[in-house]
Amino acid sequence: MYCVNCGVELKDSEKLCPLCGTMAFHPDLPPQNGEGPYPEYVEPKRRFNRFGTLFVLTFVFLIPSVIALLIDLKLNSAVIWSGYVIGGLTVCYTAFVLPFWFKRPNPVIFIPCVFVAAELFLLYINLATGGRWFLSLAFPIAGISGLLLTAVAALLKYLKRGKLYVFGGAFIALGGFSMLIEMFICVTFKLRFIFWSIYPLVACSLIGLLLILIAVCKPLRSSLDKRFFI
Ligand SMILES: [Zn+2]
Known about the structure:
Elements: H1 50-76, H2 82-96, H3 107-129, H4 134-158, H5 163-189, H6 198-216, H7 218-228
Helix pairs in contact: 1-2, 2-3, 3-4, 4-5, 5-6
């Protein structure tokens, strides 16, 4: 038997090292006074209290909404501006707090929720201001953005490989989407089609094709891997 600190040889009967005073550790003998040679592993307690945090965050969003509504009702006897406050806060709540309601937040579920909340908020603004831009502009743009993001999130989550193809495809879709955005703007505001969307279309398509090229060409991918550690 040897001292764990200084390495001097010890007798089995010795409880302390005679040289350095370190407690002797005899792996063959049952531990004395109930203490093992090293502390037992205690699993660290999870600090994050999900329900407590949710409770506080919900109040953080609820209180300004209620205050805004009360002030608005007191001053104007109607919902004039507090609707925007409540709508905006609801969209933020959906985006930042709603995922924490789930133990394992699934982006494929909560991304569409955020976009539905945003669509409803935009519809409210449109109705409240007497606008004519919801159906031909806000609804399709937010809807297509939501579908695109949800599709990317779903593919990344459920496909184990081929992330580069997903990103490449997403960039090309984004380029095509810019053309649709120009079309929606022209229809809504009765403008002339000047094809500004051709620039984002070309840029996004080039990035997308480059990503797909990297995905297809294995030697290119491995040389990039080595150079940039991606
Ligand atoms: Zn010692």
